[in-house]
Amino acid sequence: MAAQRVVVGMSGGVDSSVAALLLKRAGYEVIGLFMKNWEDDDDDEYCSSRTDFIDAVSIAENIGIGIEAVNFSAEYRERVFSEFLREYKAGRTPNPDVLCNAEIKFRAFLDHAITLGAERIATGHYAQTREIDGRYELLKAEDGTKDQSYFLHRLNQAQLSKTLFPLGTLYKREVRKIAAEAGFSNHAKKDSTGICFIGERPFREFLNRYLPADPGEIWTLDGRKLGQHMGLMFYTIGQRQGLGIGGVRSGADERSGGDAWYVAAKDLARNRLLVVQGSQHEALYRSKLSAADLSWVSGQAPHCEWVYAAKTRYRQPDAPCVIAHVDREHCDVEFAQPQWAVTPGQSVVIYESRVCLGGGIIQ
């Protein structure tokens, strides 16, 4: 019987490299696929896909598998980056990794892999899947510090049924050890950060290339004007750094009274950034939220009034909650304890124990 063909998304990083190695060892016919998804200024220090591709090719040769490169830049710009800019323009703070996974890594990539004769695809994400009676569940990874189910919550049944996550039961330290023992040149390579496929770069400078800045005023909730902001799109709820209105350092502006300032809200109508003092200010907490653009892994919404857990940002501890209302367009989530810096544009992701049920975009 012929081995099952699996196409592995290889980024040049240690995680996807070990994923490919483990599948090869498990007896699969493995093909590597390197995705280039960003064309602008790709030769600068923030986003050099050439270096990553060289690493990926080196690892493929080490493993003894073929690898090809594919360019999804047009799809990325149309499906991910344009939405990213729309959200920032509307004053929200989007999470491009969530959309990137749903539209590029598990849609454009999956479609291309099928043309290569693949029966499955695989990535180096830290997550797990489970099939029960023909339905697929998305589970948290064994390594809770690396679990990426939050970013994968928009995957559907068709995508999950075709996807393998070889690292789901491993800890990061084990992955690096496997890479080192296999002689991988990237076994100690730093994890990628920043905007999905674009990299970590001076954010204001980058965003200014695509959206015009619209400076305005910074006000307190009780009606005091404190200074000027550079454009609402550059700030997010709970932000402390970069406000330019003093803080807790010695010599802080006398208006601050010593406590640091935090972004509490954005007044879009008047182009005002609203700030409060102290990280525990009540205006930074929310007991409920509304989400739209919903996506449920099973295809069916969770039950109202059942107790679940939710994350409103990556790496946040699970917060007990109930879904007070849900329909095709919106859901309302109520928390047992108020949550800090709930941010419009970010994703709220619902869990039932280890199972990721899906979620939506915070409004």
Verbal overview:
The chain contains 7 helices and 17 strands. The chain is an alpha/beta fold. It folds into 3 domains: 199 residues, Rossmann fold (3-Layer(aba) Sandwich); 66 residues, SH3 type barrels; 79 residues, Elongation Factor Tu (Ef-tu), domain 3 (Beta Barrel). Strand 8 and strand 9 form a beta hairpin. Helix 1 runs parallel beside helix 2, helix 1 packs across helix 6 and helix 3 runs antiparallel to helix 4. The chain starts with a strand and ends with a strand.
Question: In one word, what is the shape?
Answer: globular
User: Which regions are unreliable across 5 or more consecutive residues at pLDDT < 50?
Assistant: 248-256
Q: CATH H-level name of the largest domain... which superfamily?
A: HUPs
What is the CA-atom radius of gyration, in angstroms?
22 Å
* Tally of DSSP helical segments: 7
CATH domain class of the largest domain: Alpha Beta
Which structural category fits the helices and strands? alpha/beta
Strand order of the largest sheet: 12-15-14-13-16-17
Give the strand tally. 17
- Write down the oligomeric state: single chain
The SSE string, one letter per element, is: EHEHEHHEEEHEHHEEEEEEEEEE
Beta-strand residue fraction: 25-35%
Q: What is the name of the CATH architecture of the largest domain? A: 3-Layer(aba) Sandwich
Q: How far is the first residue's CA from the last residue's CA?
A: 51 Å
Helix residue percentage: 10-25%
Main sheet overview:
6 strands, antiparallel, barrel
